Amino acid sequence: MIAFVRGEVAALTLSSAVLEVGGVGLELMCTPGTLATLRPGQQATLPTSMVVREDSLTIFGFLDEDEKQVFEIVQTASGVGPKVAQAIVAVMTPDDVRRAITTEDVKALTRVPGIGQKGAQRIILELKDRIGPPVGVAAGAPAVHAGGAPWRDQVHQGLVGLGWSTKEAEKAVEAVAPEAGESPDVGALLRSALRALSKA
């Protein structure tokens, strides 16, 4: 099991980051909020979770250990694979996930693309006694302080990557633009955009 990866960020795509470790480029599947904190050429350390399938070996990278832990716990619910688990941590903070499950908030979970009413109820039923209470970790990703960070593109690409259409993503980006401020927190903006889309 690869517990974490430390290395120079060699490349970023819409859904992954390539970190160079000892001359080898490891591709880590990441949420838009995690990708927003990375810059090519800079050193990064990401906690990781490896998912082994018959035909593939995928490494998922996370903002912190808390996000990784929630990603791994939600996969123990039947019907939740790594893609849905990643969508959950992309849309909600770890504490939001714990809160939704412990308070049986079906509506909060159905905001995640790929989770319907029955799926949310099953997740709550199976994880309620195991997920634990919110721990009070700072909500969301740290603010990105890169001069004029292209948050619009990052949020837009994140939404499209989660299954929304280009048009829907554009509308949501416009809806959250007033929240951006001088140092946009891409993770928080992405969650706001997803909330706007789920209400639409």
UniProtKB/TrEMBL annotation:
It is found in: Cytoplasm. SMART domains: HhH1 (SM00278). This is Holliday junction branch migration complex subunit RuvA. One of its GO terms (biological process) is DNA recombination. Residues 72-91, 107-126 form the Helix-hairpin-helix DNA-binding motif class domain. Has three domains with a flexible linker between the domains II and III and assumes an 'L' shape. Domain III is highly mobile and contacts RuvB. It comes from Nocardioides seonyuensis. InterPro entries: DNA_helicase_Holl-junc_RuvA_I (IPR013849), Hlx-hairpin-Hlx_DNA-bd_motif (IPR003583), NA-bd_OB-fold (IPR012340), RuvA (IPR000085), RuvA_2-like (IPR010994), RuvA_C (IPR011114), RuvA_C_sf (IPR036267). Residues 151-200 are annotated as: Domain III. Belongs to the RuvA family. Keywords: Cytoplasm, DNA damage, DNA recombination, DNA repair, DNA-binding. The RuvA-RuvB-RuvC complex processes Holliday junction (HJ) DNA during genetic recombination and DNA repair, while the RuvA-RuvB complex plays an important role in the rescue of blocked DNA replication forks via replication fork reversal (RFR). RuvA specifically binds to HJ cruciform DNA, conferring on it an open structure. The RuvB hexamer acts as an ATP-dependent pump, pulling dsDNA into and through the RuvAB complex. HJ branch migration allows RuvC to scan DNA until it finds its consensus sequence, where it cleaves and resolves the cruciform DNA. NCBIfam families: ruvA. Gene3D superfamilies: 5' to 3' exonuclease, C-terminal subdomain, DNA helicase RuvA subunit, C-terminal domain, Nucleic acid-binding proteins. One of its GO terms (cellular component) is Holliday junction resolvase complex. GO terms for molecular function: ATP binding; four-way junction DNA binding; four-way junction helicase activity. Pfam families: HHH_5 (PF14520), RuvA_C (PF07499), RuvA_N (PF01330). The keyword Cytoplasm applies. The keyword DNA repair applies. Homotetramer. Forms an RuvA(8)-RuvB(12)-Holliday junction (HJ) complex. HJ DNA is sandwiched between 2 RuvA tetramers; dsDNA enters through RuvA and exits via RuvB. An RuvB hexamer assembles on each DNA strand where it exits the tetramer. Each RuvB hexamer is contacted by two RuvA subunits (via domain III) on 2 adjacent RuvB subunits; this complex drives branch migration. In the full resolvosome a probable DNA-RuvA(4)-RuvB(12)-RuvC(2) complex forms which resolves the HJ.
